Amino acid sequence: MRLAPVATALALLTGTIALAPAARAAAPTPIPVVFVHGRNADPGVWGTMKDRFRQAGYPDGDLFAWGYDSSRSTNEVLAGQFAAYVDSVRAQTGSSQVDIVAHSQGSLPTRWYVKFGGGTQVVRHWVSLGGPNHGTSLAWACAIWDQGCRDMTPNSYVESRLASGNETPGPTKYATFWSDCDGFILPNSSVPLSGAVNTDAGCLAHNDLLTDASTAQGVLNFLER
């Protein structure tokens, strides 16, 4: 038996008719994350960080790690290779965008791609863990024979070009994490970028940024923005 309009209105007012709960908005689907290692390392260094991302709900199919020859030129070789890798990730996942989490030297080719390779429309978030974003004096120790080291020296061509104009261009969101106890990035103030969310990770060794739980959570929180 159908209720008359007046009876229905009274029932609603008195709460005798239960209303169906509103549908909950679906949680946002994570977009692919590309992890990029530092000098003389390999994709395996991201094992702990990947585990933390899985625990946070990221599926294996959205976690990628790019490997590269860190002795090669940032702008002439590596940025182009990285662009091709990002394209392959997008083709594999069907995602139009990616997030990037880079450690140390990996910050340079990824940042070059974002700034000069059209990556501002592709990279949603870019994160640098202990990156030599304004150079590190330690790189002079190997700059004579290694182009990757030369690119990391203060005021190199790569460092100067990346620092020119807007350090954090486009709609991409930028974050850096730096440590007071980082013995590789000298000075530590090289890491932060103008326009980025810059976080002091505390007293951590350079490679501990890869495995520190608080740093990983900070990265995850940033990627949710």
Note the main attributes of this structure.
alpha/beta, 6-stranded parallel β-sheet, 7 helices, 6 strands
What does this structure look like?
By secondary structure, this protein is α/β, with parallel strands linked by helices. It is built from 7 helices and 6 strands; from the N terminus they run H-E-H-E-H-E-H-E-H-H-E-E-H. A 6-stranded parallel β-sheet has the order 2-1-3-4-5-6, sandwiched between helices. Helix 3 crosses helix 4. It is globular, with a radius of gyration of 23 Å. The N terminus is likely disordered. Keywords: Signal. InterPro entries: AB_hydrolase_fold (IPR029058), Lipase_EstA/Esterase_EstB (IPR002918).
The oligomeric status of these chains comes to single chain
Q: Termini, distance in Å?
A: 51 Å
Helix content: 25-40%
pLDDT < 50 stretches: 1-27
Provide the structure class: alpha/beta
Residue-averaged pLDDT: 90
Sheet-strand content, in percent, reads: 5-15%
What is this structure's SSE topology?
Elements: H1 5-14, E1 33-36, H2 47-55, E2 63-66, H3 74-93, E3 98-103, H4 107-116, E4 123-129, H5 147-152, H6 157-163, E5 173-178, E6 197-200, H7 213-223
Parallel strand pairs: 1-2, 1-3, 3-4, 4-5, 5-6
